[in-house]
Amino acid sequence: MLAIMSAMSEEINDLVSELTNKKTVTFGMRDYHTGKLWGSEVVLVFSRWGKVAAAVTTTHLISHFKATEIIFTGVAGGVSPEMNIGDIVVGTGFYQHDMDARPIFKRHEIPLIGLTAFSSDGNVRDRLHEASKDFLDNEFKNVISESHRDEFSLSSPKSLLGEIASGDQFFASSEKLQDLRERLPKVLCVEMEGAAVAQVCHEYQVPFAVVRTISDSANEHASINYQKFLSKVASQYSKGILSEFLSRKT
Ligand code: ADE
Fold first, then answer.
1. How far is the CA of 36 from the centre of ligand 1 (A)?
2. Domain limits of the chain?
């Protein structure tokens, strides 16, 4: 069964309202909703925030719900200067930017696994990237109003494949952002869960992919932008991308 998780309750609630044959069960302070989403059997869950919350939720999806494919959707702060608010990133590699077990392991290396970055599943991520591009080309203008497009300067958003950094920090400082860029120069965006989902999926050998919409620029304006983007735009992106993804899934 496909599992869809997000660290935004608004996104999950929006998807839950589209479920048919809905059943909700609660474990470990999380509501897991099963049913059919636009014809596909899914389990939907709000992971809550941060690496531990995401890891716990992912483990439960795999061991209890027997998830065979996991998709994480949500927002992220732009790190690379080429990322604008409203762009989409589909993750290829995932770093835990706050992992630092020096001097025993080198910075960012996950102890005892021998990796500094986990990779998403090539097939799932390519389908998600195609779905993201189709959403931007077709549905985007229908579901994001002109006033919201103006408000967030969403003139011609793009979808990119690239690396994501995750950690238990909300980035809202140019100085911290610059430090992250120097440590992990190829990273496109920063969030708080993707690399934790990636580690669990690596350990259990379950295919996964992550799609993130840029809600802010991870600088001093980040928290204001993040909240506005979340309440006005983010759910429309996730819903649009996922409906494209599921319509091409067989
Ligand atoms: N998710 C969205 N924006 C973020 C930021 N600036 N830092 C960490 N996670 C985020």
1. 30
2. 74-247
Provide CATH code, domain 74-247: 3.40.50.1580
| pTM score over 0.70 | yes
Which of 190, 211, 212, 220 to mutate to test ligand 1, by most ligand atoms within 8 A of the CB atom?
Answer: 190
- Give the tens place of pLDDT for each residue, 107-117: 999 999 999 99
Atom of ligand 1 nearest to the CA of 217: 6
Instruction: Report the C-alpha gap between 65 and 1 in whole angstroms.
Output: 8
Q: How far does the centroid of ligand 1 lie from the alpha carbon of residue 80, in Å? A: 13
- Give the active site residues: 11, 216
